[in-house]
Amino acid sequence: KDAGDLKVFNKMESEVRSYCRSFEAVFDKARNAKIWDIEGREYIDFFAGAGALNYGHNNPAIRSRLVDYLLEDGVTHSLDMATKAKETFLKRFTASILQPRGLDYKIMFPGPTGTNSVESAMKIARKVTGRRTIVCFTNAFHGMSLGSLAATGNAFKRKGAGVDLPNTSFMPYDGYFGDGVNTVEMLDKYLDDPGSGFDLPAAIILETVQGEGGLNVASTEWLKQIQALCLARDILLIVDDVQMGCGRTGTFFSFEEAGLNPDIVCLSKSIGGYGLPMALTLIKPEYDLWHPGEHNGTFRGNNLGFVAAAEALAYWESGTFEKELADKAKRIEDALNGLIMAHPEAKAHKKGKGLIQGISFDEPKLAGQLSAAAFKRGVIMETSGPHDEVAKLMPPLTIETSVLEQGLAILKDSFEEIIQ
Ligand code: PMP
User: Fold this and answer.
1) What pLDDT digit, counting tens, does each position of 161-191 carry?
2) Cα–Cα distance between 158 and 150 in angstroms, integer?
3) Are residues 89 and 157 in the same domain?
4) Residue 19 belongs to a domain
5) Across 8-69, where does the E strand assignment appear?
6) Is 141 touching ligand 1 by the criterion CB < 6 Å?
7) What global pTM score does this model have?
């Protein structure tokens, strides 16, 4: 119960500098949307492991399945061998998630993290089409390894690679110029113009809501136009649902509302149910082209992930979960709109949708100040956006309504404190 000689919180003396989070606490225990530090101080978690904890910390039903599995000597690591846990997950995911939505995908385990899923998606798209370029968007975030970083629209992060990263072309995301500029029409025109420098791409990769990029929400209309452009030109559509999937925007897949049928879908973060590292890449069956051994990896068989992931699907089988999410989303929306409207002098705007909403400030430093003020009052929240101008609320989807309201009340007090 002692922080010892920890001088920099969240950065143990021996840890590298590249991590960016430094909340002044050493965390110890957690349950659903609450987390406690070693001093016993309680925080409401509006961060949820950057979206890896949609079902909360230590979800009791998932934990009990995991504990049983361990006590029954269930296989934990198995590479890509067949296991009962894997088979159970595959069957349940297909029956509960894919089939009811009329989706037909083969399921790949590309490695433990989101970036592994994105890498595999980019590789498949290139292999299928024989083309090199991936079109991606301003302020996109797809990961930190070389391929996914090449698709990430953030110059600071790309500089981490030391050299220019090849084979991606950036387009403005929906709404980038404000209203009235259709960036799909723009891309369409570029693709027809040999002078534009745009090759016919292998794929377009997008997030339906840019999580790290500032909670920018693409319109349904824009998403539909992208899908149509992809179909018309034989370009693969990759939806990166690593952060927005598993219910974050209110439906299991974030593209359901727009009725998209992507060629490839990337999932990670909350798919592992319990914060366990796990990723999926969903591919249209006809793209199952890799020969055995052409794309493999040691940690593609995390059976604890399969067990937790299968149990988490119970939420989607319940038939009531989406309604609960809509109710919570509305509470967040009303709270944020109320605050913003009551304080026009703060020059703040609501961003995001579902259970990933936030407040964007014309004066970017206010977002960091809000996060710091909220932390002092016991709420953990992050910032996002190119200037860190958005204070981002991302609670577990399973947060109790009373805890959500408590957190929103703390947010209100913190907001009023910083705009004084
Ligand atoms: N894609 C998106 C949309 C993400 O938000 C993230 C992580 N923030 C990633 C990919 C990369 O996932 P990971 O950090 O697990 O590699």
Assistant:
1) 999 999 999 999 999 998 889 999 999 999 9
2) 7
3) yes
4) no
5) 27-31, 34-37, 42-45
6) yes
7) 0.96
